[in-house]
Design brief:
391 residues, alpha/beta, Lyase, Ornithine Decarboxylase, Chain A, domain 1, 5-stranded parallel β-sheet, 12 helices, 20 strands
């Protein structure tokens, strides 16, 4: 079926130059530790191809993903670029997934001795050496070998044929709180475990604990014995709402749409489902072509704002699936088709995913991952305009 080229109604601009600059800032902050760029869930729904191409030739140590299909997809993108970077699964692998991951040279997590034996058997059968990072549960309570008693298990894993215990890692459940005593103890206990393993002769290429929150709130997780950090949300210029903002990163994303209709409505008019807003006086109302199917949280209803015509304009009425109503009484000459900035910069002002997260009572990951499938992903930046981007 022929589909005519149409300008998108809703799109998210991804500034690849800003993304690369954010990587550089993070890398400088944690040096001499290295950075693993986390691109799980299709780079949080934004398109792993764009992100891989923008980050592949940076100094990142590699890429982290959550599950095998993501690993294969990312390795295929890197192969197209002719770039050799490690791709590491950070969560777990299921028994039927292990042989193909070993064949593809994906760096694998080992969450228990049983999984290690399966990886070993697959590696021996393929006549390969599987590189693994042993996952320790030091307090997350989700996956891994419990820290208490982990050293004997580590010895058994290291003795298995076909395995190279390249790394050991863990994860923090409370690193977004810079004053959390649990996290401080967790860091100390895991560091002690690593040193005990090293005293027995283990030599890990990579030791990592810090994700984005810990990078900002617990800088000791980028110092020995740690030599690798994992980051995803900070690459986008966003943070957890509860912690410090130690990194000077810039926004990468701008969500935009267009005006569908502009009307002058009389006082007493109610707007949207539930009639949650009643005009107290006549107002000019723009209906914009984006709703909760596109990622605008319902929590912005009667609370959030957007930029139209260079002005911040309040959202009034309940956000619906496809449309949102906005008061543009203070804006001159608004017309159908005009650009609307839902989040992004407007002169010296800005609305960010973090702002939306605060209104929704969540974090920026939730906002970014909620951008709908009909939101077109558009790469922008000087390198894209000049044709020097690898896109």
């Amino acid at each position: 079926m022929f589909l005519p080229p149409l300008k998108p109604r809703v799109w998210v601009e991804i500034d690849l130059d800003a993304l690369a600059r954010n990587f550089d800032r993070i890398a400088r902050k944690v040096a001499p530790a290295r950075v693993l760029c986390v691109l799980k869930a299709n780079a949080y729904g934004l398109g792993v191809a764009n992100y891989a191409r923008a980050l592949a030739r940076t100094g990142c140590a590699g890429f982290g993903v959550a599950e095998p299909y993501e690993a294969l997809e990312l390795k295929a993108e890197l192969k197209k670029l002719g770039v050799a970077k490690d791709v590491q699964i950070l969560s777990s692998v299921l028994p039927d997934e292990i042989p193909s991951m070993v064949e593809a040279d994906v760096v694998l997590p080992v969450i228990d001795l049983a999984e290690a034996r399966l990886v070993s058997a697959a590696a021996v059968a393929a006549r390969k050496t599987a590189r693994v990072h042993v996952k320790i549960d030091s307090g997350m309570g989700r996956l891994g070998i419990l820290l208490d008693g982990a050293l004997p298990v580590l010895r058994e894993i290291a003795a298995l044929p076909g395995l190279s215990c390249e790394g050991v890692f863990t994860h923090c459940p409370m690193a977004y709180d810079p004053k959390d005593p649990y996290t401080a103890r967790q860091i100390a206990r895991f560091a002690a475990f690593v040193r005990a393993a090293e005293a027995e002769g283990f030599r890990f290429r990579w030791v990592h604990m810090a994700a984005s929150d810990a990078i900002n709130n617990y800088p000791q997780t980028a110092q020995p014995p740690f030599n690798l950090v994992r980051t995803g949300i900070n690459l986008h210029g966003s943070f957890d709402p509860n912690g410090r903002r130690a990194l000077e990163v810039e926004p990468v994303l701008a969500l935009k749409t267009r005006v569908a209709q502009v009307r002058d409505l009389p006082a007493g008019t109610t707007l949207g489902y539930g009639r949650t807003w009643c005009l107290r006086e006549p107002a000019r109302i723009a209906t914009i072509s984006a709703g909760y199917a596109d990622g605008l949280p319902l929590a912005l209803s009667n609370r959030g704002s957007v930029f139209i015509g260079g002005r911040r304009c309040p959202i009034i009425g309940r956000i619906s699936m496809d449309y949102t109503t906005v008061d543009v009484s203070g804006v001159d000459a608004v017309a159908p088709g005009d650009e609307v900035v839902c989040f992004g910069s407007c002169g010296a002002d800005a609305i960010t995913p973090d702002d939306w997260a605060a209104l929704k009572g969540t974090h920026a990951y939730d906002i970014i991952c909620s951008l709908g499938s009909r939101v077109r992903r558009v790469a922008v930046g000087d390198s894209v305009r000049k044709g020097t981007s690898p896109l």
